[in-house]
Amino acid sequence: MGYETLIVDVEDHIGLIQLNRPDALNALNQQLLNELAEAVTAMGTNDKVRVIVLTGNEKAFAAGADIKEMQEQSFVDMFNSDFFTDQTEAILRCRKPIIAAVSGYCLGGGCELAMMCDFILCSDTAKFGQPEINLGVVAGIGGTQRLTRFVGKSKSMEMHLTGRFMDAEEAESSGLVSRVIPAKKLMKEVMATAAKVAEKSPLTAMVVKEAVNRSYETTLREGVLFERRLFHSLFASEDQAEGMTAFAEKRTPKFRGK
Ligand code: CAA
Questions:
Q1: pLDDT tens across 69-91, in order?
Q2: CA-to-CA distance for 56 and 152, rounded, in angstroms?
Q3: How distant, in Å, are the alpha carbons of 30, 74, 115 from that of 81?
Q4: Closest to 143 in 3D by CA, of 127, 162, 130, 157
Q5: N or C: which end of the chain has fewer CB within 10 A?
């Protein structure tokens, strides 16, 4: 399907989605969010895709929800349409790993979108922030909740209350991103990382995603029990037999997601 606000490509088991509203710094309008939800959903059921990469451009991953589109909305409009809910739920429903590749501005809904991905790799030009307070609103796609879990209460509170931006170095040292990469090498390194994920068992990768995400939703004891049962259940898969046999035979495993 053709998209107007995204550039989408599937190659070597990697689904690449590039946000493509460069004139608006990839501001997330309803069309973009609808297309993104559709693209992620389609990749989620496409057997050729084992991992998804979500990116923007050098200047912006996304500078937030589209302020101009929201400007005239009333409470009743926002509430009745349940603004942001369907699209973000569709993205969160995706069971395959999603890597956010961030350069430049990653603000408001952009930062929240990156945090909904499974991990964030960013360039040294990245700037993260939740500046909604400057517009008289609060984050609406999970920023107050997810940023707090990533960086702790004090830093999250400061970011949300002042609207200040965090640079890449601070984002890495505070645990928001997993790695900072020089801007020119970002996409090469991200695609190499995605290729590493795509080599693994796609079945196991989905299980890993589910297990790590469960840590946000449950107690430690229940979470460990959930993990243990998933671990046990993987012994019913061909990929477990293949992975362990390949180790014993000193060869590279061939995973089929079975
Ligand atoms: N919504 C709509 N348009 C946006 C936008 C946004 N979030 N961010 C940037 N743009 C547009 C600008 O209006 C401008 O368009 P025009 O050329 O038509 O005027 C274009 O993108 C380029 O932006 P700037 O000229 O402002 O670029 P800059 O380099 O001078 O500044 C910036 C960059 C600091 C990121 C600035 O654009 C900015 O502050 N943007 C808004 C950031 C923000 O407040 N984000 C939160 C949005 S609310 C939200 O996201 C709610 C939520 O939690 C879901």
A1: 999 999 999 999 999 999 999 99
A2: 26
A3: 11, 11, 23
A4: 130
A5: N
Report residue 97's pLDDT band, with 50, 70 and 90 as the boundaries: very high
| pLDDT tier for residue 1 given thresholds of 50, 70 and 90 | low
Tens of pLDDT along 110-144? Answer: 999 999 999 999 999 999 999 999 999 999 999 99
161 Cα to the center of ligand 1, angstroms = 19
Structure tokens at 91: 């993205």
65 is catalytic: yes
DSSP 250: T
pLDDT tens readout for residues 166-192: 999 999 999 999 999 999 999 999 999
Determine the 3-state secondary structure of 131 from DSSP. helix
Residue the block writes with tokens 């061909």: 238
Q: Is 132's C-beta closer than 6 angstroms to any atom of ligand 1?
A: yes
Q: Which atom of ligand 1 is nearest to the CA of 107?
A: 45
Q: What is the DSSP secondary-structure string of 91-121?
A: HHH--S-EEEEE-SEEETHHHHHHHHSSEEE
Is residue 258's pLDDT more than 80?
yes
Give me the amino acid identity at 163.
G
Helix intervals (H) in the chain: 30-44, 67-70, 75-81, 85-93, 109-116, 143-151, 153-162, 168-173, 186-199, 202-214, 220-233, 238-248
Nearest atom, ligand 1, residue 131 CA: 44
